[in-house]
Amino acid sequence: xxxxxxxxxxxxxxxxxxxxxxxxxxxxxxxxxxxxxxxxxxxxxxxxxxxxxxxxxxxxxxxxxxxxxxxxxxxxxxxxxxxxxxxxxxxxxxxxxxxxxxxxxxxxxxxxxxxxxxxxxxxxxxxxxxxxxxxxxxxxxxxxxxxxxxxxxxxxxxxxxxxxxxxxxxxxxxxxxxxxxxxxxxxxxxxxxxxxxxxxxxxxxxxxxxxxxxxxxxxxxxxxxxxxxxxxxxxxxxxxxxxxxxxxxxxxxxxxxxxxxxxxxxxxxxxxxxxxxxxxxxxxxxxxxxxxxxxxxxxxxxxxxxxx
Length: 308
Hints:
InterPro entries: Meteorin-like (IPR051998), TIMP-like_OB-fold (IPR008993). The chain is α+β, with helices and mostly antiparallel strands.
């Protein structure tokens, strides 16, 4: 009888251990497979937890870093819609990561072909965006390694990632670079077709004036201070209300584009990267209106915009 009781207790303990392991494995997955949040306190000693990320953008937040995480970046087979400029399975792309300002307690590496390359060290205050290119079929991964600390109670390793279309010339050496955004064609004026499509596909579409232009030295970018008289669309709260008819916001572009303060009304369009607006097409509003009305008469507008 005692032997039977011991066997039942042993079976119960084994079942409890299996349940704990099952719960631990589930922590590696999220409902949307875009973002992950977890704690190093729940990991087994010396373990490497596998995390799968399958979206165009998301975030990782690792509380009390301990052990290591291996983050597999496996975008879904359907490339269309995964990110600006990503249109087909033959288009090279890049993934960019940006550590949150409170980053501490871990180091972030790019893992490619069994080789680790440091992206972010264990130092808080990182502001640079790190990008690396890859081609369809390649399976890059990120390796997050906790660094030893006596007190991990206030340490958080958190970053955001984005999959971007590769508009630049392909990087033949697959090197890691710190460019904030693809540079090829960034300063070129949009043609009529691009102008009309930008209204349909951009993360933000606003009409307004340039109040000032400042410099973001960390991103090597120009910051355009915009006073918007009409917000047609915006992803996130990029332009906040400053009155009954006006909104205020910032749009970034490359310093090399030489943007200057000037008079006149513009139609600003573009995409959001890590919560910041980056400029796409920005024609003068009167020029856009001329192109739009001409295309409308010929029934060739890809989408409508209330111009009244």
